[in-house]
Amino acid sequence: MKWRRMPLGPIGTNAYIISNQQKECLIIDPGSEPSKVFGYIKENQLKPIAILLTHAHYDHIGAVDDVRDMYEIPVYIHKKEQSWLMDPALNLSINLPFGEPIRLKPAEEIISSEGLMSIGSFTFEIFETPGHSPGSISIYFKDENLVFSGDALFEGSIGRTDLPGGNYDVLMKSIHDKLLTLPEETLVLSGHGGETTIQQEMDSNPFLNGF
């Protein structure tokens, strides 16, 4: 399995494209600049089969309809944020100084619980990791030692909790119970910034020190 981190948009939100030997690919959080997503997929002759959203803030969903329509693929989102796709007040795009308010079509697939999920020949585990937002999820590929943490855990930091629906205590519990229990060598691929590992964050993340 291969993955590509692709910072997109004015605040550099990370989209990820995950591909396998069959050239199938999953697209995580296409937040902006769909032409960059299209270009990478064309260059590598990939076949998109789904879009997965770690949560529904504007910077993670802005290019969803463009990508969905281009490849005619389903969108997956947690049930607690399914309505956010259609509501600029909830996805926080209503008063942005750039761009138009985001009103997307509903998601085709709703994630209602944690556990194993298979799409095409990909198998992974969904963790509910709320705190940054109520429906935040992390996507764990055990065999690859990879977790896509959305805006829960970053290199040297954690997600904001001052936005509507955010909760610091809930976020810290999510990180401690769901992410820090993973093998220390697990690579953490976040919604912003560079890669890190569980061990690195346990050792040096100032927000987790002593938790």
TrEMBL record:
Cofactor(s) recorded in Swiss-Prot or TrEMBL: Zn(2+)
Domain Metallo-beta-lactamase: 12-192
SMART domains, A to Z: Lactamase_B (SM00849)
SUPFAM superfamilies associated with the record: Metallo-hydrolase/oxidoreductase (SSF56281)
Record keyword Zinc present: yes
Highest taxon listed in the record's lineage: Bacteria
Pfam families named among the record's database cross-references: Lactamase_B (PF00753)
Record field: transmembrane: none
Keywords: Hydrolase, Metal-binding, Zinc
Keyword Manganese in annotation: no
Protein name: MBL fold metallo-hydrolase
Organism of this sequence: Bacillus salitolerans
